[in-house]
C-alpha cells in the first residue's frame, strides 16, 4: 500500500497529476494575476475618468460664467453711456433711470466678478489666472466709471490707468476726456466703444486661458 506509486497504475496516476498541474497551474496563475490587475486597474481608470469629467465641468462652468459676466456689464454700460436706456417721464426721471442702470450694472459686476475670483482662487490658487482676473475686475470698473459723468478731476487718472492696462491698443484716449453730455460726442462714443472692445478681447483671452488649466475638484 505504501509503494502504490511504484506500481504501473501508481506511476500512471502520478504522471496524470503532474500533467494536470503543468497544464492548469500557469493558466490559474494568469487568471489570478489578471483578476488582481482588474480589481486594481479598473477602479483607478474609473476614478481618473471621473476626475477628468469633473475638471472639464468646472472649467466650462467657470469659463461660461466669466464670459457672461464681462460681456453683460460692458454691453450694459455702453447702452447707459450712449443714452440708450429710456424711461417715460420728465428729464429728471430719465437721468435717474440712467444713474440707477449704471449703478446696478456696476454693483452686479463687482458681486459676480468677485464671486468668480473666489472660485478661481479656490480652483487654481491665488496667483496665475486668479490674480489676472482680479486685475481685470479693476480694468472693467475703470471702464464703467469712464462711461459716467464723474468729476473732471478723476478722469485723467482713470484714463491713464485704463491705458496702462490695455497698452494703448490704438484708442483715441482724448475722446474719453469729456465730462458732460457724453452721448453727444462722436469721439467719446468711438473711444468708449474701442476701449470696451479691447476689454472684451482681454476677457476672451482669460477665458481661453482658464479652459486650458487643471482645476482642483
Percent helix range: over 70%
Assess the beta-strand content as a share of residues: under 5%
- Helices, by number, come to 5
Distance between the termini: 71 Å
The helix/strand order is HHHHH
Biggest beta sheet summary: none
Which outline best applies?
elongated
Radius of gyration: 34 Å
Strands, total number: 0
Low-pLDDT runs of 5+ residues are: none
Helix-and-strand structural type: mainly alpha
Kindly give the count of domains.
1
Return the average pLDDT rounded to an integer. Answer: 82
Secondary structure elements and pairings:
Layout: H1 8-81, H2 91-124, H3 129-146, H4 155-166, H5 186-211
Structure notes:
The chain has five helices and no strands. By secondary structure, the chain is mainly alpha-helical.
Question: Any key phrases for this structure?
Answer:
217 residues, mainly alpha, 5 helices, 76% helix, 0% strand, elongated
Brief account:
This protein is an all-alpha fold. 76% of the residues lie in helices and 0% in strands.
